[in-house]
Amino acid sequence: MKTNPVAGNRLKTVLAIMAFSFMHCGLATASDAEPSAIDNTMTCFREQGLQFSDLTRRQNNPAYRTVQTTQGTEKISVTDGVRFFWSAAGQQIRIKLHLEQSANGQIASDADIIAREYQKFGATPETMTRNITPAITELGLRNPVLGKGLVGVHSLISAKRQQILTMYINWLPAQDATQDNEAVYSAAMSELLTKTKACL
């Protein structure tokens, strides 16, 4: 059987065009991908005027993290997340934040695990903040002494966005707690919580 050289050339041309089209479709899809839910929340934080540093994307393998609770080791689902820092009051307060996306339908059980984690920390009615609304569950554990080092942990759990924002609050100066320091701490946390809640 004879091969028609013209038809063969046409076929090669068509295949080359198809390959080129598929390659560029793939590139367009990758570059035009919509931002994730985590990206959208971070954009909202910035629009609220919060400035962050040292943002790192979570390497999401495995899709959970383990915590120690009153029931032992438990797993909180995490399908996406970022870690970053926020500083306030002339760098006196530096807060490490973790924003995590729960697996679909898992936010309620993840919230229960976090509550048990706070209990494991030794939270008492005097040191524990707990506020539950239809939109956000707020949990906080506060060390009453504002010395140097970690002085608090705070979590905002969003049912709407199925996201968990955890804040590890560090007080940097070495001096003992004073009334002025209390005022600085309260003002900084009020600003951070107001602006982050607006996005969750």
Gist of the model:
With 200 residues, this protein is an alpha+beta fold. The chain has helices spanning 5-31, 37-47, 107-121, 179-197; strands spanning 53-57, 64-69, 72-77, 80-88, 93-101, 128-132, 136-142, 149-158, 163-171.
Describe the structure.
The chain has 200 residues and is an alpha+beta fold. The chain contains four helices and nine strands; from the N terminus they run H-H-E-E-E-E-E-H-E-E-E-E-H. The protein has helices at 5-31, 37-47, 107-121, 179-197, and strands spanning 53-57, 64-69, 72-77, 80-88, 93-101, 128-132, 136-142, 149-158, 163-171. The strands form two sheets. Strands 1-4-5-9-8-7-6 form a seven-stranded antiparallel beta sheet. Strand 7 and strand 8 form a beta hairpin. Residues 11-31 have low confidence and may be disordered.
List keywords for this structure.
globular, 4 helices, 200 residues, alpha+beta
What topology, given as strand order, has the largest sheet? 1-4-5-9-8-7-6
Radius of gyration: 24 Å
**Alpha-carbon distance between the two ends:** 70 Å
H and E order = HHEEEEEHEEEEH
Nearest-integer average pLDDT: 79
Summarize the biggest pleated sheet: 7 strands, antiparallel
Q: Kindly state the number of beta strands.
A: 9
